[in-house]
Design a protein that fits this description.
Layout: E1 10-20, E2 35-43, E3 49-51, H1 57-60, H2 76-83, E4 89-92, H3 98-106, E5 110-113, H4 129-135, H5 138-148, E6 151-157, H6 166-176, E7 177-188, H7 191-195, E8 208-209, H8 212-221, E9 224-232, E10 239-246, H9 256-267, H10 269-282, E11 287-290, H11 294-302, E12 311-313, E13 331-332, E14 342-345, H12 352-358, E15 364-367, E16 380-382, E17 387-390, H13 397-409, E18 414-418, E19 427-435, E20 443-445, E21 450-456, E22 458-464, E23 470-477, E24 486-489, E25 494-499, E26 503-511, E27 519-521, H14 529-549
Parallel strand pairs: 4-5, 4-6, 6-7, 11-12, 11-14, 12-13, 14-15, 17-18
Antiparallel strand pairs: 1-2, 2-3, 3-8, 7-10, 9-10, 16-17, 18-19, 19-26, 20-27, 21-24, 21-26, 22-23, 22-25
Helix pairs in contact: 2-3, 5-6
Length: 551
Amino acid sequence: MNCRVCRQDVQEIMNLGQQPVSNRFLKNADEQEYTHNLSIGVCNACGLMQLTDTFPAAEIASKHDWLTYTEPERHLDELAKIISGLGSKVCAISYKDDSLLQRLKKLGLSGMRLDPVSDLGAGKSHNGVEVVQQLLNVQAAKQVAEKNGKFDIVLARHILEHAYNISEFMKSIKELLKPEGVAVLEVPDCTKAIEQLDYGMIWEEHLAYFTPAAFKSCIMSAGFAAERFETYQYLMENSLVAIAKPAEKKSIQNGEHEIEAAKKYAEAFAEKKKAAQEFMKSQKGNIAVFGAGHTASTLINLFELKDFVSFVADDNENKQGMLMPGSKLPIRSSDKLNEADLCILSVNPEAEKKIIVDKNFNGKWASFSPISELSIFNRFRKASDEVYYAQDRIADKKDIELIKAKAQRSTQKKSRLCMHSTEGDKLQEMLIVHGKGTYVRPHKHVNKAESFHVVEGTARVIVFDDNGKITKAFEIGDYESGKPFYCRMNDKHYHTLIITSDWLVFHESTTGPFNRADTITAPFAPKNDDEIAEFMKKTNADAEKFLRSHK
């Protein structure tokens, strides 16, 4: 097949056989069930992962009016402010744009959302994005523009990945826009899922699996130019947002990195499936899964886990009493969880802690998510909320993303993965993650040195005398940044880090055994939260002055 973005050749890398539609819950075990071949490919040019044998849109469309999907929204206030100055007249494509449209109206913009019946010619009222993407074509867009006039801003959040014909969809957006208008396009970033080998990402409703590079290629090949490109950070998957204007088509970006990652993702499936089954076999007693969504449906079916699971629990009363697609496992109320000995969470990992607190469950918890602390695939041993020990002595990019995810959940936005076995080891080596704004209280070490090698990100190293005066400051970054990437600190001077990228990841080495008394915090450094922000702001400003005067 041809790539749905750049029209180049797509190579099939996974064929997962006949699979059900994951929103098609069954009323009884004898009910006839539609299945379709689920196969995934990667474009040999732009590197976009995509379904190669798409399920019919009519089969994907939900049969249940009560079934809804929510998208991440923490970033929408900021996004609304960014685009509010780009025009006054807004068109929203689907119900997924409603919350952003409401924010824009509060900021004084006028807007409408396309109606599937009156604007797109649907036979009956249906808000599902599968229906909208199918009916939104150039002719329909022209009719909307003739009726309402053209728009300054068109919103299209979390629908592009559902589009069967991306070229036609993007042409339709052009028809809705004024010549200088902008399209606000948002898609989920699949980078983490691909790197973490998260097969719950696979969904018949998502035809395209975007990474930042593949998303940019999509925009360029569709005849748009990104005026602004933002990545909004979330624990499970980031949100990619492009604010783009109509332009001449440009050649796509080379997707060599994406192609390699996609092939590794496909190659690792059998091993991951085996690991999931081995985990299940190792458990005693009944196993329940919490969350009767597409992730649970996908993983239970793809990993062939139905014989290990007693039931699936869900708090949606409409699902209770029905059967899961494919596996035909019963869906029960979460009140029944204590009939199980182990409950595997199949939800966004950001919600896991709240669920565990809210549920009166006496058994053990686990998680299907590879970035969860409770993951059935866990490679780490937890020592505290910020300190983890590697189960083996090899770390790769997946491990970096895992400790980033743990830092994101931490109140201080930091975490470390210890590569040594215990605090008593003579050599202590760690992969450490600090987020922007993390406070590294100025400190020095007694009778020991430390070195650190930057793996990712940038920071400012600041050295003080005993009175808190800056005696040295310099920039560090990963090898590709062009900044110094390695630093060794002796035991004589107080020092700190100011993180200048979203995340700083560095490899730190020092001598052991670990003794907290060997670290002396600076008396001039605040520990009161109310004083820390001001101290960091002043320290950074003083460091900038120091750097300018010592060029």
